[in-house]
Amino acid sequence: MASSMQDEYGAMDDSGLTYIHQGAFQLESGEHLTNPQVRYNTWGKLNATRDNVLFICHALTGNSRLDTWWGGLLGPGKAFDTNKYLVVGANIIGSCYGSTGPCSLNPETKKRYGSDFPTITIRDTVALHMEMVKVGLRARAVHCVIGGSFGGMQALEWAIMGGPEFVRLCCPIACGAAHTAWQIGISETQRQAIYADLKWRGGAFPPEDPPTAGLSVARQIAMFSYRTGVAFEGKFGRRTADGSSALSTHPDWEVKRYLEYQGQKFLNRFDALTYVKLTEQMDTHDIARGRGDAKQVLSKVPQPCLILSIDSDILYPPHEQRFLATHLPRAHFVSIRSDDGHDGFLLAQDQVSAAITQFLDNYPVPSSSKI
Q1: Is 64 a catalytic residue?
Q2: CA dist., res. 214 & res. 223, Å (int)
């Protein structure tokens, strides 16, 4: 019963190809990373004019293996049609799935970055990923950038930073123009759970003795923001795992079992410092930062954009996607019906697939660019 809610991710690993930036990669903070690497995966083939790339951005704890978490959209004849496109997934800078992050060795010190890992912004991640596509894959243009949640934030930056000359289409899902106080606050409660673990040690914990209790609680907090009361009630209600009375000492609620299961499962695939650093990277999201008013920034994005919204999302509420759709000049807005909340962008794959397929059919790769 512990895993009776559908999981949003399948088996996770760091397998794939590697792109390495040679030398110092300058960050927005003024710091740099030396020879940072990006782990990525591809499906399909680059066409003769090298402009049929579909770049898929992953969410907070995802990886470049989109076949394990958006597999229903990937393959011949599907939304991410490998007969039409070179589909690319790349791991975020700062993650623990192959790209340079806190668990990586610093080439300058020959030691693990650990708590010395610098501040990374979403724009930093997009800049390095964009370089990987241009230099590593030698692509001339990206047909469409698609992503949900943290991935949607990246997709918006791709459209802005790449411009219509390099990025033709954009599809941000379940995100807004900036990380709001609501979202920063939810992330901060998770970070505070990690900080409260005595093993945190200011982030300077030894790899063999990590703050697992704090990370487990952080993941349990996150699960509430990703789902809905309707979904939890439908799956668990007030049932106890052993059929005991609600008046017994420490009732073993089914929902309690589920949260503990999710927290424990997460420990097998993620690192506490990485989690802190990535949630802080999400908090840098603000398309208006250094550019002016958000409405003005959006009004200057000329590419067609598909905005997908999950109607029950309490983490990134639908009014945030409607704001994007209102102010992007060539926006198409689609609301996804789901009781699964924010995780609907991963779980309602049939609806998401149908919307993306129609959008891409409306804006095909130019005929001169076919494989």
Answers
A1: no
A2: 14
Q: What is the pLDDT of residue 371?
A: 45
Per-residue confidence (pLDDT) for residue 228, from 0 to 100: 96
Q: Point out the catalytic residue in the list 81, 313, 340, 343.
A: 313
- Count other C-beta atoms under 10 Å from residue 25's C-beta: 18
Straight-line distance from the first to the last Cα atom of the chain, in angstroms, rounded to the nearest whole number: 48
- CA–CA distance, 293 with 285 (Å, rounded to integer): 14
Average pLDDT, rounded, for the chain: 95
Has 367 been annotated as catalytic?
Answer: no
Catalytic residue among 64, 149, 225, 338: 149
Nearest to 144 by CA among 83, 80, 99: 80
- Please report which helix (H) or strand (E) contains residue 219, including its range: helix 212-226
User: If you ran DSSP here, which 8-state letter would residue 87 be given?
Assistant: E
Distance CA 283, CA 233 (A): 30
Contacts of 268 (CB under 8 A, 6+ apart): none
Catalytic residue among 225, 309, 342, 343: 342
Decide: 155 and 174 in contact? Cβ < 8 Å: no
Structure tokens at 368: 């001169």
Residue 130: which H helix or E strand, with range? helix 122-131
The whole-angstrom separation of Cα 125 and Cα 151 is 11
Residue 245: its pLDDT value, please? 84
Residue-level pLDDT at 108: 95
pTM: 0.95
Query: Active site includes 311?
Result: no
Residues in the chain: 371
54: closest CA among 135, 145, 187, 162?
145
How many angstroms separate the CA atoms of 325 and 347, rounded?
23
Q: Are 240 and 227 in contact (CB under 8 A)?
A: no
Question: What does the pLDDT read at residue 1?
Answer: 40
| Residues forming beta bridges with residue 18, ordered by sequence position | 39
Distance separating alpha carbons of residues 273 and 203, to the nearest angstrom:
6
Q: What is the pLDDT of residues 212-233, one digit of tens each?
A: 999 999 999 999 999 999 999 9
| Positions in the chain whose pLDDT score sits under 70 | 1-10, 368-371
